[in-house]
């Protein structure tokens, strides 16, 4: 028997970004004992990176855009369910390998993830996932496969990389230089990482005036529009000088899976379908508004016309916070962004967006209750007439973090050939 083991070189995090190099160690071990002198023989072995897509959409296979680099007979025997949309050129590990009992042979495999490939995503109607397929075969036997899954994060491609190169040259001029050393070229992935750091670190506070049909509720301040996974969305709410008091509120971090295929096929009918999926948006159209004071643009469904409203898509909630704010004039909002989510991305079939979903419980009763002169306390009212309003605030984007900052220890994947 021969045991095949596969383990990534990066042991602390089995997560990679588009454009990074995936490195894997593949070990072939003869499990026989010393008493058994039979030599195991493998005809060949190869390794290849595949990206699969599994979807419920009706896709025309003829017009479908694929990036098959090296299509071989190995694609016909892959066991993963779904369509292969990206396949790198297979790399031969060996030919005619002979192993004695207890002998081990280790091979090194590396491959660069395509820059324009989709990220790992498991949505409602579509899924993208990556696997390293290790195939081997004995003489006159069937092909044996070992699939090693990996997680891929999207890194946006910079349209004008010359701007980032100028920044790097400025930093190099300030440091001591050696005329005998060649200048190191900056890769496209490094330029993208520098640009991503600048985008997510940029502060651009925006103020939103929240009101309903009964008057002013409060003012919401979002300190920056773009975030990375693992960060906290920090904002503030100001209820001073309000006409309607907010009793309590909740904030949810939600993803929107928007089908681009459905938009192309159904054109204008997608708006009605999206409104029937999420009933909360109908409530926001009837009750809540928010106006961006800096750019003078409407930001909620209540301020748009029905024909101009953007599609909502399938909604998923990943984080929720809840606060009581009846006696508060100012409070902070901190919404964590989990590390396991998929950042914002767009393909030919689907677009993933992120938003903050607010639910405000309001009342027109502005006093806090009846004061008690004997005990010096305020007696809260027994009943408060309340109304609920919702508001959806779209985020500019949620980007990927550095894979080395996400702790996800790689496992050893095994295959036993008898």
From TrEMBL:
Pfam family, one: Rgp1
Protein name: (Mediterranean fruit fly) hypothetical protein
Organism annotation: Ceratitis capitata
């Amino acid at each position: 028997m021969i045991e095949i083991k596969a383990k990534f070189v990066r042991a602390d995090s089995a997560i990679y970004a588009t454009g990074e190099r995936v490195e894997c160690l593949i070990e072939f071990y003869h499990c026989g004992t010393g008493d058994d002198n039979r030599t195991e023989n493998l005809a060949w072995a190869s390794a290849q990176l595949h990206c699969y897509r599994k979807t419920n959409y009706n896709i025309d296979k003829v017009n479908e855009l694929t990036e098959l680099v090296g299509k071989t007979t190995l694609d016909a025997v892959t066991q993963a369910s779904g369509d292969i949309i990206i396949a790198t050129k297979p790399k031969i590990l060996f030919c005619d390998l002979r192993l004695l009992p207890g002998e081990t042979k280790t091979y090194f495999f590396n491959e660069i993830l395509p820059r324009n490939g989709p990220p790992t995503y498991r949505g409602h109607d579509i899924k993208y996932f990556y696997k390293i397929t290790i195939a081997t075969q004995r003489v006159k036997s069937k092909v044996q496969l070992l699939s090693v899954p990996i997680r891929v994060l999207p890194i946006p491609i910079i349209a004008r990389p010359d701007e980032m190169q100028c920044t790097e040259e400025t930093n190099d001029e300030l440091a001591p230089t050696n005329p005998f050393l060649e200048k190191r070229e900056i890769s496209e992935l490094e330029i993208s990482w520098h640009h991503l750091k600048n985008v997510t670190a940029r502060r651009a506070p925006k103020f939103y005036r929240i009101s309903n049909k009964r008057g002013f509720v409060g003012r919401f301040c979002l300190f920056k529009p773009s975030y990375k996974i693992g960060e906290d969305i920090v904002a503030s709410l100001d209820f001073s000088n309000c006409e309607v008091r907010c009793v309590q509120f909740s904030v949810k971090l939600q993803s929107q899976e928007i089908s681009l295929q459905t938009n192309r096929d159904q054109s204008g009918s997608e708006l009605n379908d999206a409104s029937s999926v999420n009933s909360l948006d109908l409530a926001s159209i009837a009750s809540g508004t928010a106006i961006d004071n800096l750019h003078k643009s409407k930001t909620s469904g209540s301020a748009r016309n029905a024909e101009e409203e953007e599609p909502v898509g399938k909604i998923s909630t990943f984080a929720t916070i809840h606060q009581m704010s009846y006696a508060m004039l100012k409070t902070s909002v901190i919404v964590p962004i989990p590390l396991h989510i998929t950042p914002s991305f767009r393909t030919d079939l689907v677009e993933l967006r992120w938003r903050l979903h607010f639910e405000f419980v309001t009342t027109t009763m502005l006093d806090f209750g009846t004061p008690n002169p004997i005990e010096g306390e305020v007696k809260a009212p027994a009943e408060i007439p309340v109304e609920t309003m919702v508001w959806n605030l779209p985020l500019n984007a949620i980007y990927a973090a550095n894979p080395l900052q996400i702790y996800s220890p790689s496992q050893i994947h095994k295959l036993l050939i008898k």
